From TrEMBL:
Binding-site residues, Mg(2+): E52, D81
Protein's name according to its UniProt entry: dITP/XTP pyrophosphatase
GO MF: dITP diphosphatase activity; ITP diphosphatase activity; metal ion binding; nucleotide binding; ribonucleoside triphosphate phosphatase activity; XTP diphosphatase activity
Function: Pyrophosphatase that catalyzes the hydrolysis of nucleoside triphosphates to their monophosphate derivatives, with a high preference for the non-canonical purine nucleotides XTP (xanthosine triphosphate), dITP (deoxyinosine triphosphate) and ITP. Seems to function as a house-cleaning enzyme that removes non-canonical purine nucleotides from the nucleotide pool, thus preventing their incorporation into DNA/RNA and avoiding chromosomal lesions.
Provenance organism: Inquilinus limosus
Species lineage: Bacteria, Pseudomonadati, Pseudomonadota, Alphaproteobacteria, Rhodospirillales
Amino acid sequence: MTNTASPARHFAGDRLVIASHNKGKIPEIAALLEGRVARLTSAAEHDVPEPEETGDTFIANAELKARFVAEATGLPSLADDSGVSVTGLGGDPGIYSARWAEKPPSESNGGSGRDFAYAMEQVRLKLGDTPDRSARFVCALSLCWPDGHCETVEGEIRGQLVWPARGTKGFGYDPIFVPDGHDRTFGEMESAEKHAMSHRADAFRKLVARCFES
């Protein structure tokens, strides 16, 4: 990761590739960047495959993805890696947050995809009687250039896990996460309220201040 104590490289271009095949990320990131980049495209639009995420931290995986796409396209690339870290589980599921939602073949009934109701139940079962229900959502953002230089930041929001799950908004682990200072889960909040305080918003504030403001 680039040392955030050193002078940052300013983003001065008008094209940025989002290192993802998720079309929904383009408008979300455009809103978070507040029009600072004229043209955003996805890795899929450049026929760049998603690399295997072999890092052992959120930051390592974000940098791996951004650097891979920047090298493949010859354009600056932005990648994120995020998940939930549960104190009582030693930080799990962490970088494996999405993987925890994949049911084993014996329980999938031939289906595919991710089931976060299953993932949340795994968290509850593994915690058992552990009294510590504290957790944090983490988002690492990495902006990499084709020459290999990366600027990377990490945002987070802390809170408590609750059961049963509450709310149908949001996605992933949102229905069991109550941010500190609030009494509703992310799953019960409207998207604008959640995004104003989320780990992703925290990370983007840091990245914008570091690389997009004079």
